[in-house]
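1st attempt posting a full record on here, be nice pls
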Amino acid sequence: MNEPTPTPTHDRSSWAARFHSRVYRYKRLLKQRWWIPFSCVFIALVIQGALSWFAPQRFISIGRMIVSIKLSIQETSVYTEELSNFLGTQQALMQSPVVVQRAHARAVAQRPDIVVQPAELSVAITPKTTIFVVRAIGHDPQYVKAFLQACMEEYIKLKREMREKTSDTTLAGLTEEILHLQRDLKKSDEELAEFQKTNSVVLLQEQGNNYGMYLASLTRKLADLKSEYDLLTTMTLDQNIERQRQQGVASTSSEAGSERGGGGRNANYELTYQKRTVLLAEKERLEEYLRPKHPRLIGINEEIAQQERLLNTYRKQTSEYLENLKKSLELQITNVEKDVVEWDAKNLSISQRTAEYQKLKAGQSRVQALYDRLLATMQTLDVNKEISPESVTIMEPAFDAVPERPPIIQSLFKAGLIGLGASLAILLLLDRLDDRMNSYTDLQDLFDEEVLGQIPHEGLEKGQKHLGLIHAEDPRHQFVEAYRNLRSSLLYMNEGGNKRRTLLVTSSVPNDGKSMTAANLAITLAITGSRTLLVDADLRKGLLHARFGLKPETGLSEVLLAKKDWRNCICKTGVANLDLLPRGGTTQRSSELFVHQDTKDFLKAAAAEYDCVVVDTAPVMAADDVTSLAPLIDGTIFVIRAGETSGRVARAALELLYQRNVPVLGLVFNAVQTGSGDYYYYYRYKDYYKPYPAKPA
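the predicted structure (as tokens):
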């Protein structure tokens, strides 16, 4: 079986619905309580008018001050004013309590015959200028003028005191700093002098240059010796001999070994080598045409052998010579390295003393420069302190005080705004305290129950005391359609497949429209062809028979009290398919009657003979009748009247029904204003029901 489609519910978070609901609520509140804003504004205007009329005469005096044209100030000036909000700062300073108190004292001191009186001081800035308009208002014209003049003078005096205080504070700080620098400068001078006593600055510089040059030459010599030694060690004997043969004399050993005869030995080796080469060439030439044992070849071979013996001798001598040369280079390297270490230590000592001197000299120069600058600043401060001009001076002294013309219109306008604001606050407070529902959105905010229908508010016609019941050709189209919509909601509300044959209509308090709703609902059900019985179960004050223009002698009271047959008490209403069981006589025992078995038997019999039984009862909070009768009914309809029913009371009534397991089908929102933003029914299209004009014959 397909699951039933869930019924769409009202979106409580809809901003638009809430907005329109609040607007309509406030409009309704203002319409109902319009006299509150009117009264508040009227009272405020009357009070302000009385205050203005009976207020004593006040006098006003005006003076002007201007920002002075200042001379250029040197870089060493120590007092400046922040210009980002200069005018606003000066305006606040002119109205400060210090200036006002001093002005009162100054005015009394200058004019002992004047008594101190309250006076108002205000300062305004002329637009697009640097001119201050100073006003004083009071009840004594002479005191007002004296007070205003004293205010301007005391303001200038206060500014001068602030500048002098700032200058004195700065001067004291500079003096303390200079004394501190004097001690530092004296200490630096003493340290520099002490160093110069034990070190000659000129000699240090000269020694530093000489030591550096000599150390550099030793370093180069050491590098050359190490290079020559590494070369001799790396090369073989033949390579060394060939190197000496090609160069004649080795460049590194020419200086070190010239006295040892190295040059002559190398020359003999070269001559012998050349001679052997010539003999070998001659032998090769002779071998081309002479036999090996030819005397000339034998002689050449002997000469070649002799030259080779000489070469071997020379090679042995050269090997010994190279070994001696390497030992000599080792000794020279050791000696030069020792000298480098010694002279490097001397050069480092000279560099350290020179660096110490430069450090002492730089520190002394830095302290001296700072000392000179602060001393010059302090000397300039004393001069600027005396000659610095005022930033704001008096442009026009205080004029004679003249009577003030109170701004009546402005005062009344402000009073009206205050009264209007107070009235709005009162209205908002009343709205907060009022929990009555004025719109569909308000109803949904307070209740979770389903809304079966909204009944629009219908006014009484001229001469009517009660609103008439609906009928088949009723011209009140939106009123009738609302009850038809309620009927449809009930007919198509089918839970569990069982049709509800008995319906009870109630409300929380009287005058919510439950009886009218019950009667009109019964009429709409009867119009559809359903046999409907309308029962007036309000045995205390029920008047349904009067709605239908009937005057019965018996009714439900007699059925329950006198055991009369209820069928004999039925009245015809004039509406097809609709019968009425009126109240009958009144009784105060209705609650006891409803819990009796006779009531159950009556309801069972009526439901068997009629398609639908609609029961009208007393309000829930008025009597216990409903809570005794409603559990016997198939479904209960709860009526809430827009703008009248309290949300708290309605909720309490529903809770009483729920405690007795009463099946509440839903709510009927009665007497809804059609101008409400969320009244969704047919009032917008009421022209649809107008008949077409008749065609001309």
